[in-house]
Amino acid sequence: MTHPKRRAAAERLARDAPPGALQVVMDPDPAGKPSVLRTALCAWEAIEDGATHQLVVQDDMILSDTFFARARMAIAEMPNAALALFALWDSRNGAAVRFGALTGARWVGAVNEYFPCVAIILPREVASGFAAFGRRHLDSWPDDILMNHYLRAHGIPSYVSVPSLAEHEDHGSISGNAFRGPRRSVCFVPQDVPGREGARLTGLRVLPFFKQGVAQCAVRVDGPGEGSAPGAAQGTGRWLHIDCEQYLEGAGVRPERHQPAIVRMAEVTAPEAAKGAWLTAFTMGFVHRRDGLRCDPATAGPDDHSGPAPATDALPDPAVLAEALATVGPGGISYAQSEDRIAEQRDELARITLAGLEAGHETAERTRPARRFRDAPSASHRSDSHRSAARRSASRRSDSRRPDPRRSDPDPRRSDPDPRRSDPDPCHGDLDRSDLDRSDRDRSGCDRSGRVRGDADRSDLPHVEVVGTATPLGEHLVRGLADAGHRVTTSPHRPTGHPAPALLDLTALTLPQPEPPDTHHTLTLTLQLPTHDAEFALRLGDLYGPGCPHNSRIGRLVWDALRSFPLTLDDPAEPLRPLHTRDLVTALSELLRTPPPEPVVGLADAPVTAVELAEAVRTAVRPVPLAPPGPATHPAPQGAAWPPPPPGWKPVTELHYGLHTHAQWLAYEGIHLALEV
Q: pTM for the whole thing?
């Protein structure tokens, strides 16, 4: 698929392919608004009579030497699956590919993100269905986000190749993606040897990735009764969006205690970039070794090309693993660095990444609890140090800095998973499998009633009953309080009997926010502690971040920017007070421990004007234009003075990064709540 400006590149790609394998499909409206989806739909509709599958490749891709051999073998192995042959170096699917490289897998189950479409194979029926679906949503979302939504809604098994079978040449972007910086593969090995296409890794639940200069972590939380069928597009469950440091502290690990001198003494890499790459790799190594990740036994058996290869014998390919690790650092700084500047830092970043991976492996080994039986992790694993670390995590939110970053050729040693181990769940806390109610618990740490696992280990922090959690935002707040170390129970209504020591009522917290624009939600928090019994009103500003919908005041701007729509402001001078959901969790955790001296508390960042917020959205999400202002509106009535914050508390989430996390949540999760198939 191509545009007339790049027709020569597309024709060259088709000539270099096996005869008849590729044909060129042109943008049907090259003078119109740039749209990858418009051309992609023509490509999906161009499937030939008798073909069982359709391969679509964008014109700026480099194909591996064994691209078509591996593609045909993968189709034979997984005829009903969607197959992505490329993943970006700073993406969550890229994080899954790295775990695949660590375990010797050839394919990994796609995770909650866009589904990479620059080189992709679909079964004929899926291609036709997506083409019809895409026609109904033209000029709305990018093709890769729509593709993920379509595959997930229809339960299509979806996999990403290990290594990538294509690389991005990245000679500019017609569709307006140049602002993202260099966009390279997580792991491109041109001479990758075909075979073992049945070796797959699925069911990943913790995904460390380095993006926008921040070591981030996506954590899977299943919906009620939801399983994790191999490769299936994951359904109603949620993903927590946290930083690696927060995740590790919730797991009882203080990463700074394990940081080697190589991070502090980086010579060509900025300190924050070095720390981010190391922390991402540390988390990856910790999860990999702690959870005993390995290829799926049901899918990694012998095949005609590699001979017998039981799943437990899958070994990482040194070249694939080395390249996968070498892209952690470059991917994390690519948003703000040139190709040349990234190249200067690659070798040093690779050494730092390898050091982080090894430190994570070693930490997981030291913290692994002794077991009498192979598959019986003990709930007592959550120790006093874990609880104190969880408390620290609540009070020390990382302030989401992005580095002034700077590149690596790793030593692929010591990547061995131990397939014989069965380890604690990737989410915070361990499942006590001696519990007779274990069938009613999901692997996120809560049972179906919302009770957090390991309650007996959290008795030193206030127990809180949360009312009104039947929204994604409510779920995020409950999970955040649980990760902060609180024992949490949930209820649809206020209890009529003797309440828990603390009661948090979220029923008034509904979005979008009401009019007039300066009206802010009041969240009533009732604390009933042995020495204090009072009701406090928490006045929130403009809430944004993971869990917040697309039709809140800030959400509307982010939603439009994601879809490349101009940003429309009712009143450019309108004041807003942003409050990120992470900062709300931190404030709630502090208030549960220390009630404030005043009955009304203000939670929000410093006020910004609507036009200032729009400029931040254009920087953090996509540089879309501002729509011309409409007729002047009447000034909003002045409200009462903003109440003081809790003593010693302040929001720390930097606005640019906070908007980035809000955009990620809306594109990968919120879209499933707002868009019909």
A: 0.78
Distances (CA, A) of 307 to 193, 313, 379, 451: 14, 12, 41, 48
SS3 track for 249-310: HHCCCCHHHHCCHHHHCCCCCCHHHHHHHHHHHHHHHHHHHHCCCCCCCCCCCCECCCECCC
Q: Are strands 107-109 and 200-201 parallel, antiparallel or unpaired?
A: parallel
What is the per-residue pLDDT across 333-377, written as a single tens digit (0 to 9) for each? 998 888 899 999 999 999 999 999 999 999 999 876 543 333 333
Query: What are the pLDDT digits (tens) for 217-269?
Result: 999 887 554 544 444 444 446 788 889 998 998 888 988 888 888 888 888 89
Q: Which amino acid is at 326?
A: A
The residue count of the chain comes to: 677
Q: Is the peptide bond before 597 cis (omega within 30 degrees of 0)?
A: no
> What CATH number labels 508-674?
3.40.50.720
Give the start-to-end residue ranges of the domains of the chain.
Answer: 4-395, 508-674
Contacts 24+ apart (CB under 8 A), 133-141: 133/677, 134/37, 134/40, 134/41, 134/44, 135/41, 137/675, 138/35, 138/37, 138/38, 138/41, 139/33, 139/35, 140/563, 140/675, 141/37, 141/562, 141/563, 141/671, 141/675
For residue 178 the two structure tokens come to: 């140049």
Lookup: tokens for 27: 């943008």
- CA–CA separation, 163 vs 526, rounded Å? 53
